Amino acid sequence: MDNCGFGKLSAELRNQIYDYVLPENDEIEVYSADPSEPPEDEPPEDYQPPITQVCREMRAETLPMFYGRNQFVLPLTTEDDDETHWHELLEDSIDKAEAWLECNPGGLSLLKSPLIISAEFEGDVLTKKWYDHKRPWMRLKKALRANGYSKKMYFLTIRADYWSLLDRNSGSLPRDERREDRKVNKAFREMGLECKVTVVGP
Predict the structure, then answer these.
(1) 137-179: per-residue pLDDT in tens?
(2) Is residue 104 included in any domain, yes or no?
(3) pLDDT 10s digits, 99-149
(4) Are the CB atoms for 135 and 96 separated by under 8 Å?
(5) Which domain holds residue 109?
(6) Residues 184 and 193: beta-carbon distance below 8 Å
(7) CA distances from 84 to 80, 87, 152, 177, 182 (A)
């Protein structure tokens, strides 16, 4: 970069130029949430702006800005247009999450804000019990720990659609929502994961 005109500009002026082309205060998914795209078809750097891939020197200057001023999301897909079972889709999403975490270990992370891990579910599927219902979440917890992500470095948020379960005309609807929230939070705490539950409206 030193051999081109841009490289001869001052660092302050280069940063001003980067400000124009890099996103700021955005919520950015680090890989596609489309379940039809397998992880091997998505290089980990695909979501990074083109300017971060021009050359090694420019990458070193732009990546800290890109990661430092945006919020990044690991989306966990649980539904598609083909009515695939949510558990299968979640397992596929965990594959993508594991690949990204391995390429972006916590100890080398440039993130300034906690990594958001998000998922949405229908009704009571989060608290149903069968032989392997915990497996994808345990895989996620293991991947986070193995790649150096402490609980302060990520934030699990669950959007739960309870409206098929609750009586919307009931005077106790707020209490019923809180009860379902507690069930989901308890299920995740038992797996060693803390989460924030948001009730999805009709």
Answers:
(1) 899 999 999 999 988 899 888 887 765 554 555 556 566 677 7
(2) yes
(3) 999 988 888 888 888 999 988 876 556 656 555 678 888 999 999 999 999
(4) no
(5) 6-199
(6) no
(7) 6, 8, 33, 27, 28
- Give yes or no for a contact between 30 and 72, defined as CB atoms under 8 angstroms apart: yes
| CB-CB contact of 138 with 131 (8 Å) | no
Beta bridge partners of 14: none
Q: Which residues of 30-46 are buried (b: 16+ CB within 10 A; e: fewer)?
A: bbbbebeeebeebebee
Q: What angle do CA 181, 186, 187 make, to 5 degrees?
A: 100
Helix 11-21 and helix 56-68: axis angle, to 10°?
60
Q: How many CB atoms lie within 10 A of CB 151?
A: 13
Q: In a 3-state reduction of DSSP, which class is residue 3?
A: coil
Q: What is the pTM of this model?
A: 0.77
Q: CA-to-CA distance for 89 and 99, rounded, in angstroms?
A: 16
What is the count of structural domains for the chain? 1
Query: What order of strands is seen across the sheet that includes strand 154-161?
Result: 27-29, 71-76, 115-122, 154-161, 195-199
159 located within any domain: yes
Dump pLDDT digits (tens) for 63-85.
999 999 999 999 988 777 776 67
Q: In the structure encoding, which two tokens stand for residue 89, read together?
A: 């889709």
The type of residue at 92 is D
Query: Which residue type does 90 have?
Result: L
Q: Does residue 1 sit within a domain?
A: no
